[in-house]
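Protein in question kept underneath.
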Amino acid sequence: MKKLLKFFKILGITIITLLVVAILFLRFSRFSDRMIYQVNGSEYAEFSSQSSFEEFFFEVDDDVKLHGVLFKPSSEEAIGTIFHYSGKGMHLMSSIQKSYEPLLKKGFQVFCFERRGFGQSTGEAKNSVTLKEDALNVFDQVARLDEVAQKPLIVWGQSLGGAFATMTAKERQNKIDGLVLEGTFGSFPDIGKVYARALNLERFKWVIPLIMNNDFPAKEAIQALTIPVIISHSKNDDQVPYELGREIFEASNKSTTDFWDVDSKHIMAIYDYEEKYVNDFLNMLH
């Protein structure tokens, strides 16, 4: 009997040790980062657009260049710049260009870039800390452009891009005039739990905060903002649950933040509520 108890004790210790080692490996190897940013079929041969544009390649590291484009209104000088952090799979030759059309018509210029290993950008997207540094690096370079520096600058983030947008707003609040978020979430662990549930792994969701690094704590970052903020989220969002958007709003400075419900698909409000969406940007100019 003593030998049996000893065996089970050793077995239990072994299992716990292996579990701890596995959790530490997944966390410090940033395995989840690779999963978050991995997108297949995002490459394209050449960028083109029916809109006026200026193309950039930002050298952010040895042998790493990030592709970005500044879309410009065709018939007039820009009234302001929108720095857009797009959703996970939205490269610059996707339908993203169509979402810019109503903004360009109103006189905005819109900038967006592709993260490492996405679209025409080189490198690998395997570390959120590196991608955060890239985002701030590109933002700073764009903010210094002559055609941007003397005009209002608004940051816009959708879905995954909302994490980057909120981070940028916190780190560069003195350089921007407003923040617009749609269909985003408060942290990577928060959205990780959602996908655990979708994969019928609800009972294991407790492990998500242990294996995922929270490099973009949007609920904490938004508390520091005093600039105008607008958050929209659809109750019908089947990718990022509505309550995650509400959580960001609840953490925000209510005196400068507005929340509006939309009845739309994931990050499609620019199409279904075009007039209000565009007016939200216009109102931030005043």
